[in-house]
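5-formyltetrahydrofolate cyclo-ligase: structure tokens wanted.
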Amino acid sequence: MDPTLRSQEDDAIQSIILEAPWFKSCKGLCAYISCSALREVDTSKVLSEILKNTDQDNHSQVSKKLYVPRVEDKNSHMRMLNISSMNDLISNSMDILEPAPVDAEGNERQDVMFADEPVDLFLLPGLAFDKSGRRLGRGGGYYDTFLTKYQELAKDRNWKRPLFVALSYSLQILDENIIPMTPNDVLVDALVSSSGVIPISSAAQAMYRSSHP
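Answer:
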């Protein structure tokens, strides 16, 4: 993509997310930290907004708990750890920012799999998506493995299943049933592109209808 166009789409996608009722109302979420080398949709503005500490009351924004990914090994093992500042991130061997396992005081960061409260939302990356909710990742299986485990956890605890929302450049969106599926693949509920939200699952369609009466 032309860098200028890509930057415009980055800004548009993040603005759509920040204005979305389902984002404003969520209390906990897991979100990826974008890496320009991987050509992922930028999430820096969304993360900054979540982590911004303001003393003033902002009734349009619910205080959110943010978890971001840390890759543990090459066997599709990834954790989502809580951060409260961008200073909590360090560069890994591939120059990708991820949370340090312990905070400045030496305490282990909270892992979303052991949290007392559920998250409402996952913001997901990918190489391509189709309009039936299929997501093409990078082949490591990290996200599909993690999303499956979290769905099982939510079911065991009688929590509402979180919404899986993928961020996508316009060029990455394909027609329905184009991307091949494997039994381990997890479908996304909705896509956000520079043109707006594309609700896919019944949960996302209901959410979309309620915010667009």
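The chain is about 25% helix and 20% strand. The mean pLDDT is 91.

Cheers.
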